C-alpha cells in the first residue's frame, strides 16, 4: 500500500479555511491520528454549505445536531447513522459557514493491532482475520478503526504546538509522542500524487447525486467501492455528511 516516509508536521488551520471541494482532494495522503492508531486518507467526499448543497447536513441551516459544522475549521464532526454507525468529517471554511469533508476510507499506517481489535469488537484474537486493506475501508470502518465516537464530536484536529515526535515510520509501527492520550490530529503525511487523484459522484446520496465531489487515490486497495443510492426505509440520518435528515 502506502510507501515512503510520512511527515509528522501537523496541518495548520488555514488548510481547512477553504471550500470543502478544494480541501477534499488535498486531504488524500494526509494522516489522521487518534491515540495509537493513524490512518492515511485515501478516499473523501466534500459537502457544501446551507442552501447550496441539498445533499449536505447543513442545507437547511444550523441545528443542534450539525452545529459543529458551523464552527471553526479543522474540527471533527462525528455523527451517528442508521442506528449503528459513526462517521467522521473535518469542518471546512471559516467559523459560521457550515461545510465539511467526509472521511470515507484510508490505510492504517500505525496501530494495526489496536485497529484490528476495535474492528473485531474488542476481541484481540477474533477470527476470521480482517485484511489490512479492509480495516478502514469505508466511513464506518474508518471511524471504528480510529476509535471515534459521539463524544469526539467537536474535537479540534489541529495541533497548535511544536510537531510531536517521533515521525511515523513507513513500517507503520512507530507512534507519535507528546500528545494528549485522546487527541485527534491531522498531519501532512505524504500528499497523494495529483496524477492519481480521481473524482466522481458521491456515494449513496439521493439528492445532488451527480456532483463529482468524491475524491480518491486511483488504484489504492483501501478505497471503498462506489455505490449509488438505493431508497430504503429508515428513521436515522443518511450515510454521509450528505443527505440532510427530514426533521
Class, according to the CATH hierarchy? Alpha Beta
Number of helices: 3
Beta-strand percent range: 15-25%
Describe the sheet with the most strands. Answer: 9 strands, antiparallel
Order of helices and strands: EHEEEEEHHEEE
CATH superfamily: Methylpurine-DNA glycosylase (MPG)
Architecture, according to CATH?
A: Roll
Mean pLDDT level = 84
Residue runs with pLDDT of under 50 for 5 or more positions: 167-174, 234-240, 242-247
CATH topology: 3-methyladenine DNA Glycosylase, Chain A
Domain count: 1
Q: Using DSSP, what is the number of strands?
A: 9
How is the topology of this model organized?
Layout lengths: L6 E4 L9 H8 L3 E4 L2 E11 L28 E6 L3 E8 L6 E12 L1 H8 L19 H8 L37 E6 L7 E4 L13 E4 L30
Antiparallel strand pairs: 1-7, 2-3, 2-7, 3-6, 3-9, 4-5, 5-6, 8-9
Please characterize this protein's 3D structure:
This protein has 247 residues and is mainly beta. It has one domain (7-217): Roll (3-methyladenine DNA Glycosylase, Chain A), CATH 3.10.300. It is built from 3 helices and 9 strands. It has helices at 20-27, 112-119, 139-146, and strands spanning 7-10, 31-34, 37-47, 76-81, 85-92, 99-110, 184-189, 197-200, 214-217. Strands 1, 2, 3, 4, 5, 6, 7, 8 and 9 form a 9-stranded antiparallel β-sheet that branches. Strand 4 and strand 5 (85-92) form a beta hairpin. Helix 2 (112-119) crosses helix 3 (139-146).
List keywords for this structure.
3-methyladenine DNA Glycosylase, Chain A; 9-stranded antiparallel sheet; 247 residues; 3 helices; 10% helix; mainly beta
Amino acid at each position: 500500500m502506502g510507501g515512503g516516509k510520512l511527515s509528522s508536521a501537523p496541518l495548520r488551520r488555514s488548510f481547512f479555511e477553504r471550500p470543502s471541494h478544494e480541501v477534499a482532494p488535498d486531504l488524500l495522503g494526509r494522516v489522521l491520528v487518534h491515540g495509537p492508531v493513524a490512518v492515511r486518507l485515501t478516499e473523501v467526499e466534500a459537502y457544501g454549505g446551507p442552501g447550496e448543497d441539498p445533499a449536505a447536513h447543513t442545507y437547511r441551516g444550523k441545528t443542534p445536531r450539525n452545529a459543529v459544522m458551523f464552527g471553526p475549521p479543522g474540527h471533527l464532526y462525528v455523527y451517528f447513522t442508521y442506528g449503528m454507525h459513526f462517521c467522521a468529517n473535518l469542518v471546512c471554511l471559516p467559523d459560521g459557514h457550515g461545510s465539511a469533508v467526509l472521511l470515507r476510507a484510508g490505510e492504517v499506517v500505525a496501530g494495526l493491532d489496536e485497529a484490528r481489535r476495535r474492528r473485531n469488537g474488542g476481541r484481540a484474537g477474533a477470527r476470521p482475520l480482517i485484511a489490512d486493506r479492509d480495516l478502514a475501508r469505508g466511513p464506518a470502518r474508518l471511524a471504528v478503526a480510529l476509535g471515534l465516537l459521539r463524544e469526539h464530536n467537536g474535537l479540534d484536529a489541529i495541533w497548535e504546538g511544536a510537531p510531536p515526535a517521533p515521525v511515523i515510520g513507513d513500517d507503520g509501527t512507530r507512534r507519535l509522542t507528546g500528545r494528549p492520550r485522546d487527541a485527534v490530529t491531522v498531519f501532512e503525511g505524504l500528499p497523494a500524487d495529483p496524477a492519481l487523484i480521481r473524482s466522481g459522484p458521491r456515494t449513496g446520496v439521493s439528492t445532488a447525486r451527480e456532483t463529482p465531489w468524491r475524491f480518491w487515490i486511483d488504484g489504492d486497495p483501501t478505497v471503498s467501492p462506489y455505490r449509488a443510492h438505493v431508497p430504503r426505509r429508515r428513521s436515522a440520518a443518511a450515510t454521509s455528511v450528505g443527505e440532510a435528515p427530514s426533521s
